[in-house]
Design brief:
With 400 residues, the chain is an alpha+beta fold. The protein has 13 helices and 14 strands. Helix 5 packs across helix 7. It is elongated and about 105 Å long. The two termini are 60 Å apart. The structure holds zinc ion (ZN).
Length: 400
């Protein structure tokens, strides 16, 4: 250990931080700064309260050199270029960057400048990396402590509210605010609005839900991650689970009850069961393969008999569906098999109202119309009676 320290001191002007860091893993419960000072003490180099010893090829000359050391004191560490002395000022700058942002936890990251990285490599080549700690790690930790002291906020590496990156190459701080995730369930009570941003549509389910959240959080963007989506012309009367993500929120303490009430002012969308969520739940929603129930109002070209309707029981089972014509312009043409779990019907004047339950991804309109033979079997195909879907509602989303 002492050999390493001597070797480094011979090589460069080194501050206590940079000296101690090379043997950081040998002792715990102390700082690199203290380790460096201790090493200097052992090497009888503790001739100044805060010395940067001059390079010395010959330790016998220490006494002689000590006089010169007073002058050399002004010289910066040749490993970190005096970075650790600047940390309090950097911490102050970081706190200024964080002003106006509500956060409870933070984490510090560092991007080294090219010269710093190069010198670190040089040092490691000379004295080895066996017990050392990387410069970045020490800067992150020490800057973190300083910011914590100034703000009273805790450093949290696992799920920080903000990430402050000290970019030493660009001499600036980058602040990244963690997204907020709110779980809820929505009903879409009207036809003609898409779930998320879509071509010419000005109103979306996402916008209606996100608007009050954006007002309060002053976020810069939002995403609605939902368990599936209904067609634009379909209502969603069943409660559809979603996670709303607010990007770059300046405020993260929210009153979900008030926000829910604000969204529910809308006559178009209602939301329920709000609670805090996280990105893991987004993934789970996206992977969920929940069965759905639908109500479909259908008009057949020719009158249908009771016998006809009973025949439709044959549809229950596996349905082969080529990508529907109506979405072919944006999705690849492929054949999929989806299960129709159940089918019930009720006459409504000239029309028939079906209540059906199907596997996730079943195209319901095509199950009725047959989509020119692209879906088989289908109601229209089975009865040899063309059919159109007059109205479609999602009435339940079955999560297990
Ligand atoms: Zn240094």
């Amino acid at each position: 250990m002492l050999d390493r320290a001597k070797r480094l001191l011979e090589l460069k002007v080194v501050c206590d931080h940079c000296l101690g860091r090379q043997v950081a893993q040998l002792t715990s419960g102390t700082t690199n700064d203290a380790r460096g000072r201790a090493l200097r003490g052992i090497l009888a180099l503790d001739y100044d309260a805060k010395p940067y010893p001059v390079k010395s090829e010959n330790f016998a000359n220490i006494q002689f050199r000590n006089k010169k050391a007073k002058k050399a004191k002004q010289k910066s560490c040749e490993v970190c270029f005096g970075l650790f002395e600047k940390l309090p000022a950097y911490a102050a700058a970081a706190v200024r960057e964080l002003k106006g942002i509500e956060y409870h936890t933070f984490v510090v990251g560092t991007i080294l400048s090219r010269p710093l990285a190069t010198v670190e490599e040089e040092v490691w080549e000379e004295i080895g990396t066996e017990f050392c700690e990387p410069l970045k790690a020490e800067v992150n930790r020490e800057l973190g402590k300083l910011i914590s002291n100034r703000t009273g906020k805790d450093a949290d590496e696992q799920i920080p509210d903000v990430t402050v990156t000290l970019n030493l190459a660009k001499r600036q701080f980058d602040v990244k605010i963690a997204s907020l995730y709110v779980y809820g369930e929505y009903q879409k009570l009207v036809r003609g609005i898409p779930q998320t941003k879509w071509d010419k549509y000005r109103v979306t389910v996402e916008d209606i839900i996100a608007k009050p959240f954006m007002c309060v959080t002053k976020g810069t963007g939002h995403s609605l991650h939902a368990l599936g989506r209904e067609d634009i012309d379909a209502r969603c009367l069943g409660k559809r689970p979603f996670v709303l993500e607010i990007k770059n929120p300046k405020k993260r303490t929210l009153n979900l009850t008030t926000l829910r009430a604000a969204v529910n002012q809308s006559k178009k969308v209602q939301i329920f069961n709000l609670r805090w969520s996280d990105v893991k739940e987004v993934v789970a929603l996206k992977e969920s393969r929940a069965e759905k129930s639908y109500r479909v109002l259908v008009r057949f070209k020719k009158p249908v008999t009771e016998k006809d309707l009973k025949m439709l029981k044959k549809l229950v089972g596996s349905i082969r569906q080529h990508t529907p014509t109506r979405v072919l312009h944006r999705r690849a043409n492929k054949l999929r098999r989806r299960r129709l779990c159940s089918m019930m019907w009720k006459r409504k004047g000239k029309d028939v109202e079906f209540t059906i339950r199907g596997e996730a991804g079943l195209y319901v309109k095509e199950l009725i119309t047959g989509d020119n033979g692209r879906t088989q079997p289908s109601a229209a195909g089975l009865l040899k009676n063309p059919a159109v879907v007059k109205a479609l509602d999602v009435i339940a989303i079955h999560r297990n």
